[in-house]
Known about the structure:
With 322 residues, the chain is of the alpha+beta class. It folds into 2 domains: 2-168, 2-Layer Sandwich (Ribosomal Protein S5, domain 2), CATH 3.30.230.10; 174-314, 2-Layer Sandwich (Alpha-Beta Plaits), CATH 3.30.70. The chain is built from 10 helices and 14 strands.
Amino acid sequence: MKQASARAHSNIALIKYWGKRDARLNLPAVGSISITLADLYTDTTVSFDDTLAADQARIGGAEVDPGRLSGFLDIVRETAGTNVPARIVSENNFPTGAGLASSASGFAALALAATRAAGLEMSPRALSILARRGSGSAARSLFGGLVEMHRGQDEDGLDAFAEPILAQNAWPLEVVVAITDNASKKVNSTIGMSDLDARSDFYDGWLAHAEDDLSSMREAIKARDFATVGALSEMSCLKLHGLMLSTRPGLIYWNAATVSAMHAVREMRASGLDVYFTIDAGPQVKALCAPGQGQAVAAELAQVPGVLETRLTALGPDAAVL
Length: 322
Ligand code: DP6
């Protein structure tokens, strides 16, 4: 039996990925820029075991159908030249499938653990390309700090990988996650962003401005210009949700508390706190805070009706073998 374990941290996109240029290879239609979170992570152990009849998976203590994970392991097995089944055991230290990027940390941890268990030594870039096959956002979770995912042009996807923009300790931003619902989301990202060409009249506009948004964000990050980073993040989030709302059938990921928390963030800003919101394919609100402001923001968000829990986190590190 060959076994390895890895930890990967969740990430939150500031400039969002939504839409695919190739569904089979999971190539994104747009690049994205994200922030890796210290306190939200997945630990995964993969054991290739020739006494198993088929792959098995246990997530958060429950046996699950290994379907999507098996498909991913097949890529690793093909690369390693083996067909031995594996057991996957994975734990998130946060709610799974509720818009907290569990597929990002999950597939990044799986890519690292599975390749190591299979005896493969891959570069961070090769791991990022591999993790992308599991989930687009997972390509970013190989890296700590602030990270950019490249859309790429090539048909084989070898230029669609993530790489760091700023290291974990280069800019001590903070993020407050306000949890408004612990249930799994109704429409997962993969389904929500499928066939957007046919399903949304807003998709062309989304694609047309993606490169400009990315380059503005890249510059603002390099200049440590928090107000611009924050404003671009809120804009990309609202644009994403405009696209989601425009999709047939319309995707409404927000609940009442999500909207209350968005207003609360804007009120905090009006009263002098440096904070901006972002939201993914779920009802949780993530507040991006300038260094040192996270605690005050968390205390305010905890008072918002419908906010069940808040978590304050710093920027996280690269994924690592345990
Ligand atoms: C809204 O990476 O979960 O969080 O590639 O189909 O697995 P798949 O999608 P996924 O989508 C993430 C969408 C998002 C924005 C983002 O993280 O960039």
